[in-house]
Design brief:
Helix 5 runs antiparallel to helix 6 and helix 9 crosses helix 13. This protein is mainly α. 47% of the residues lie in helices and 4% in strands. It has 17 helices and 5 strands.
Length: 373
């Protein structure tokens, strides 16, 4: 369940949420007459927050306001923030990460929209610490069984995630230009923290990805012929290159089956495949494979990192491939035996090579995906 679903389950009924927010300040506190939540969205967009984060943050602020019976946030402060976060933890029993996101959404409102300074030391007591947990990791045999029970596009997506250690939304947002066949690399744009990074393109996926691109090109050509063919681009890029959103290289690697309306602009576009398609497919595949673990798409990323460590690759290399800013985050995978190593191979290609499906001679110093090891 994603944050939108979690917050929606906590929110008041839809008809109540859609009513205007009232207070003695009327929530129309700006000189331009915009409502508070519209101002909030504007600032999020100026600071280049993603549409997904925008929707999530707005829902948290709505929950905060409704919890305090529609009082305007200007009338409230640290005490009310603490009461709301305590309510989430004690009454709703949300996770620490969910509570932290609510905290961040409300803090953004006070800092960047209302321009009210709150005491950081007092606020710190309301930010929960996430417990250190051991990630769920599949064995190589479980990976084989999971993949064997996937088909079509979800199978290819799962292989890309396991072969390169990508997050599910990083995979969904891949575009044509992000697959570098010549250098055997996948370029992950705007990953967590808005950073770009390179990761491994497994040799065993090259042919499948080339076929996927052929399929995407057919879809794109038909969309263009029908008068469509555009995709979402960040606002700055859309202004700088007004025709880029229809260019081939900007199309999504895993496009949605249908066109949809962009809620911000009203444009009819083809977005990327929704992540729930992959989430449901992997959950069902794990059930069919009789894997008695809580398996999600992120489990493939955990398995990628763990299998690289088992193959003897150093923690710093894995840190870079995963895009972790701090090596301490990567250290969570050190519950497995570490050995020295130079070339990183993907476990997907290792499985394929063992089956005799392909054989590639590569330079010893090249970093290889665990799929290729």
């Amino acid at each position: 369940m994603d944050y939108i679903q979690i917050i929606s389950s906590l929110s008041p009924k839809d008809n109540e949420m859609n009513q205007p927010l009232h207070s003695s300040h009327e929530h129309n506190s700006s000189s331009n007459g915009k409502k508070l939540l519209d101002q909030y969205r504007d600032v999020l967009r100026v600071k280049r927050y993603s549409p997904r984060t925008e929707d999530t943050y707005v829902l948290w602020v709505k929950n905060f306001i409704f919890y305090h019976k529609k009082r305007h946030p200007k009338e409230m402060g640290i005490s009310e923030i603490g009461q709301f976060l305590t309510h989430l933890a004690s009454d709703k029993e949300v996770s620490a990460s969910t509570q932290n996101q609510a905290f961040s959404a409300i803090l953004f409102l006070y800092r960047h929209v209302l321009h009210i300074d709150l005491d950081e030391l007092i606020l710190a007591q309301f930010r929960p610490r996430r417990a250190k947990t051991i990630p769920t990791v599949l064995s190589r045999d479980e990976i084989k069984r999971l993949i064997a029970n996937l088909t079509g596009t979800p199978k290819l997506i799962a292989l890309v995630m396991y072969g390169g250690g990508l997050r599910v939304m990083e995979t969904m947002r891949l575009r044509v230009k992000d697959i570098d066949f010549d250098n055997h690399q996948i370029i992950v744009r705007d990953g967590k923290g808005e950073d770009d990074r390179f990761t491994i393109l497994p040799d065993s996926l090259i042919q499948s990805l080339q076929l996927q691109l052929d399929h995407v090109k057919i879809i794109h050509q038909k969309d263009l012929a029908d008068g469509f063919g555009s995709v979402y681009l960040p606002v700055a890029l859309d202004r700088k290159y007004p025709n880029a959103n229809r260019a081939w290289i900007w199309q999504y690697l895993f496009p949605a089956p249908d066109l949809s309306k962009d809620k911000r602009t009203g444009s009819i576009r083809r977005h990327h495949l929704h992540e729930t398609v992959v989430q449901k497919a992997i959950k069902e595949a794990a059930r069919r494979a009789k894997i008695d673990k809580h398996v999600t798409p992120h489990t493939l990323r955990h398995s990628f990192a763990t299998h690289l460590l088992q193959n003897g690759y150093d923690i710093r290399t894995i840190q870079e491939l995963l895009g972790h800013k701090d090596v301490k985050t990567t250290m969570i995978y050190t519950h497995v035996l570490q050995r020295g190593g130079l070339a990183v191979r993907s476990p997907l290609d290792e499985i394929r090579e063992q089956k005799g499906e392909y054989k590639v001679d590569l330079p010893h110093i090249r970093v290889k995906s665990p799929l290729d090891s």
